[in-house]
Amino acid sequence: MHFLPKPKKLTETNGEFFVESGIRIVSESEGLKTSTGWALPKVLRDELLRYAGIEATLTAGTADKGDISLRLVGALPPQSYVLSITEEQIEILGRDRAGVGYGIQTLCQIIRNKGALLPALRIEDKPDIPARGFYMDQARGRSFKLDTIKKQIDLLSRYKLNQYQLYIEQSFAFRGFSEMWREDSVLTPEEIMELDKYCKDRDIDFVPSLASFGHLYELLRTKSYEDICELEDAAGKPFSFWEKMQHHTVNVDDERSFEVVKKMLDEYLPLFSSKLVNICADETFDLGKGRSKALADKVGTDRMYMDFLKKLCEYVVSKGKIPMFWGDIIRKFPEFIKELPTETICMAWGYMAEQKDDICEPIAKAGANLYLCPGACGWNTLINRIDTSYSNVKIMSGYARKYEAIGLLNTEWGDFGHLNNPSFTTPGIVYGGVFTWNLDAYSGEKGVGKEELNKALSFLEYDDKSETYIELLEKAALNQIYDWWSAVLLFEGFADAANFDEKTNPAGFNSHKALTDRLERFKAEIADVDRASKELLEIRRKLRKTVLSMDSAKRNEFNKADNAIAGIDIWNRVGRAVVMPETSDEKVKFELAEELEIWYMKYKEIYRADSKESMLGRVTKVVLWYADRLRGITE
């Protein structure tokens, strides 16, 4: 049988449970009977109908022979469960409602494997890490429809994750800030409260996450608030994807900065029932480089950062909440962590396949309440880099254990317009659930390897009886040679040294050199474009066979995958024709321009099915610039 995650202890016994029509799902404990809105018993009922063809009823009271009993048992550890299947009854015991819910999800997976004839067994299970979260970017390109967000929450629930965060910069309808969010498709207070309840009904903590220090590009480039931006003359400049990633930071030498951030927090935090608040406070690249330079010269940027961060954390604590922040800045001076409120959580992030622990070691040694934050690795790609995500999440889960982290928050960022469909983030999300629940099952010589894990994921999540869907996605992603990062920076002029101003990049990262180096590598590997085209075509052929083995309800995934794989091939050839124009004649370029436009028309249709318009128009400008470049319209 396939399980994700693997249970800690599974004992098979003799016999089978015969699921019969009219089976009852009985909440026996008082705490479960009074759990209004609890979604998991309904999920079990629906799974029985879909995969076993059996109609069940929900009730409370005392379970009889042939029923499914749900009960609370105080002697069990938090979040743990015991699932017992005998010939006479199914019983799920949990210390708390969450534990019973995890037992229900495991039973659902057994039903997906076995239908209406279930093997007798006993499972005793609990997670390795208490807080197991996922973090989705809602600010840098896509603003997801409410139904899309709810489907993602359901996905978290299926694989036993218990925390969800949506990253917000400008993508919430703050009062008094319409100039910031007027070009976006924003979430409303009513939608946030609806999502909070939806999460709560699935025992998921919906945590507010709001940029409050750096990454306030859309706020600080408005005429109303440019005066508190660290950089001068921020308003009125043309939009830039690169600038949005790098700028802007508030001027901490101006008291109004804190008042503006506080105003946003005061409106946003009451919408959430969570005790946690992620204030972000990361990548403050501009700090001390503009309006506050005199203060930086006097006290140093480390002290400036720390004083403002401390002020933010203390304010959150005064509201009865627990602050969280990204640790990329403070890890350079970890001794300052002791100045923060004791309950503050520091989040150490790193997204490399072979990520070193130097990102978390200094923070852990300083005594911080620690979260480890890997990545689902979908930024600047059409399909997530599944292989990188697998390695990264697994390694970071190991560091979480090593440094006794209280949580792991797996991230998905939407750099440069959030090109990839949220569907392709699924493997990374599941890896986060799997490795934080039972890392030992996937480690060592006898552990479950990536190939077997991906087969289980293909079967359980996509109803793919061939068990190859994730493998095909992974191979397709590995063939993206001309990536979206290069495409956008070339469009924005970073390949031209005359357009590159080091002063606008206080992070010290030379974008012009990084891009031109990457383009030189692309030129050196130009033969790979034809090889990749052949491999991608074969993947698309195999995908058409795979979809036949899927449940009909999951076959809509094929449309997304096929479009993305075709797009990878097209962009590889577009990159070759634009970066090395001598490789293609005029006729080929014109045909490729039309192929790109036809592909993009379908891409937009798929995009709009699960996302609001948001920054799609800005992505369109990049795509059409390439089509025009191929036709010789733009230089």
From TrEMBL:
<feature type="domain" description="Beta-hexosaminidase bacterial type N-terminal">
    <location>
        <begin position="4"/>
        <end position="125"/>
    </location>
</feature>
<dbReference type="Pfam" id="PF02838">
    <property type="entry name" value="Glyco_hydro_20b"/>
</dbReference>
<dbReference type="InterPro" id="IPR015883">
    <property type="entry name" value="Glyco_hydro_20_cat"/>
</dbReference>
<comment type="similarity">
    <text>Belongs to the glycosyl hydrolase 20 family.</text>
</comment>
<feature type="domain" description="Glycoside hydrolase family 20 catalytic">
    <location>
        <begin position="132"/>
        <end position="374"/>
    </location>
</feature>
<keyword id="KW-0326">Glycosidase</keyword>
<dbReference type="InterPro" id="IPR017853">
    <property type="entry name" value="GH"/>
</dbReference>
<protein>
    <recommendedName>
        <fullName>beta-N-acetylhexosaminidase</fullName>
        <ecNumber>3.2.1.52</ecNumber>
    </recommendedName>
</protein>
<dbReference type="InterPro" id="IPR015882">
    <property type="entry name" value="HEX_bac_N"/>
</dbReference>
<dbReference type="InterPro" id="IPR025705">
    <property type="entry name" value="Beta_hexosaminidase_sua/sub"/>
</dbReference>
<dbReference type="InterPro" id="IPR029018">
    <property type="entry name" value="Hex-like_dom2"/>
</dbReference>
<dbReference type="Pfam" id="PF00728">
    <property type="entry name" value="Glyco_hydro_20"/>
</dbReference>
<keyword id="KW-0378">Hydrolase</keyword>
